[in-house]
TrEMBL record:
CDD domains, sorted: Bact_CD
GO molecular function, one term: isoguanine deaminase activity
Protein name: Cytosine deaminase
Organism: Phreatobacter oligotrophus
One GO BP annotation of this record: cytosine catabolic process
Lineage: Bacteria, Pseudomonadati, Pseudomonadota, Alphaproteobacteria, Hyphomicrobiales
Domain Amidohydrolase intervals: 215-426
């Protein structure tokens, strides 16, 4: 059992004194003094809920409230990870990517799925991933689930079981995943929609330039509206400037009056090709994306790993999409973990601090930091509908991550492996699952 660097008392009422909070994530008095987009505050926790956020040192000691001195330690709300692949995670020991490319990943995953993805295999790997995410301080996750016809009735029931098992620790959502060419196959959408209604989840697919793209999108939008399902797409995951399915999705959303459907914002992930297009084309597309009300999630670690990879040639581009330009147009933007230890990304552990740290470096979430911390917390909570998550303020759950670092440079220079994760006002065990627990899947 390990619970990080902070000695948190088992107490109904305590006050985190001298916490440093990202200003963009705090619901507190407007008078909280800010420096470097951080505020110094005291956070009162009562019965597992944040009862007050006050400027540091302004509230006198109260009987029955135990002081916990943070001496500037940073406090985040628990993270929200809007785009993962729990069903695929950790297959690397038996399914590596031969060349680190996207086609290499597709082929390796396809073969592994066909050979090994029984309910037991999927459950074991998903459970492992959830344990890691929980220990790192994540409270809500949306996963995509590979949903080719033969896999649907294996993976979706497992997901539904785990959603119940993890209720109260990690809020779980899922979205279906297949290529646009599979989505147009006769009977596919009917089968998928029936499974989503049975198990709960949203509709999605991978969009790329295919003759099936326009009819496929039309069919998916119709099916989603009829069945009342949210939409979440993998979009243009390539550096080919000719890939423009993002614009077609935005146009379909406008045509289908999606913003009036009451089904939340459509989420579009990746959108890498945008960074290879000229400014005029980018502007035309982003105007449409803003008008359609889409929300965008970038996957900085996976995109950097897969994109611009040519054997023997040094990568020159980062592979991520244009989050700064999107944010300037009012488009909600997020970052998320994506794949973990599978052929789409050989590394990763569903640690959203790592994702945020890498996003800071790859996407320049700094100088100033401004409201970029929202991209891993409040924005995915709002976009995906994880109510009450991603902010710290009176009434929010005392689901907090306390880091030893006191400033952005201290926080992001080290992995903060000794963080303390507080759930419902109590420190949890932050011991990570041992990789050896998975060995039975391939030995
Ligand atoms: O990045 C991607 C794209 C498709 N499928 C994945 O698992 N990851």
């Amino acid at each position: 059992m390990g619970s990080g660097f902070l000695a948190l008392p088992e107490a109904r009422r305590f006050r985190l004194q001298g916490a440093t909070l990202p200003a963009a994530l705090v619901d507190g008095p407007a008078t909280l003094p800010q420096r470097d987009d951080l505020v110094r505050a005291d956070v009162l926790v009562v019965d597992g809920v944040v009862a007050a956020v006050d400027a540091a040192g302004t509230v006198a000691a109260e009987p029955g409230v135990i002081p916990v001195v943070l001496d500037g330690a940073m406090v985040f709300p628990c993270f929200v990870d809007a785009h993962t692949h729990l069903d695929k995670g950790h297959i690397w020991p038996r399914a590596s990517n031969p060349d680190g490319t996207f086609p290499g990943a597709l082929a390796a995953v396809g073969a592994d799925r066909a050979a090994h993805w029984t309910a037991e295999d999927v459950r074991a790997r998903m459970s492992f991933a959830l344990k890691a995410a929980y220990a790192h301080g994540t409270a809500a996750i949306r996963t995509h689930i590979d949903s080719i016809p033969a896999q649907i009735d294996i993976s979706w029931p497992v997901f539904a079981e785990l959603r119940e098992e993890w209720r109260g620790r990690i809020d779980l959502q899922a979205s279906s995943l297949c290529g646009i060419d599979v989505a147009v196959e006769a009977g596919y959408l009917d089968q998928m929609v029936a499974a989503l209604k049975r198990h709960g989840g949203g509709l999605g697919c991978v969009t790329y330039m295919s003759p099936n793209l326009a009819p496929g999108l039309e069919a998916i939008f119709r099916a989603a509206r009829e069945a009342g399902l949210p939409l979440d797409f993998h979009v243009d995951e390539t550096m080919d400037p000719g890939a423009h399915s993002l614009r077609l999705i935005a146009e379909a959303a406008i045509r289908h009056r999606w913003s009036e459907a009451g089904l939340g914002r459509i989420v579009v992930g990746h959108c890498c090709s945008l960074s290879a297009q000229d400014d005029d084309e980018v502007r035309r597309t982003l105007d449409r994306v803003a008008e359609a009300g889409l929300a965008v999630v970038s996957l900085p670690m996976c995109n950097m790993y897969l994109q611009d990879r040519v054997a023997g040639r040094t990568p020159r581009r980062r592979g991520v999409t244009l989050l700064h330009e999107m944010r300037a147009l009012g488009i909600p933007v997020m970052v998320a973990s994506d794949n973990t230890r599978d052929p789409f990304y050989a590394y990763g552990d569903l640690d959203m601090l790592e994702t945020y740290r890498e996003a800071t470096r790859i996407l320049h979430f700094d100088h100033p930091v401004g409201d970029w911390p929202r991209a891993a917390t409040a924005t995915p909570a709002e976009v995906c509908g994880f109510a009450g998550r991603g902010r710290i303020g009176p009434g929010s759950p005392a689901d907090l991550v306390v880091f030893r670092g006191r400033s952005w440079t201290e926080l992001l220079s080290r992995p903060q492996s000794d963080r303390t994760v507080i759930r419902n006002g109590r420190a949890i065990d932050t011991t990570l699952p041992d990789y050896r627990d998975l060995d039975r899947l391939w030995s």
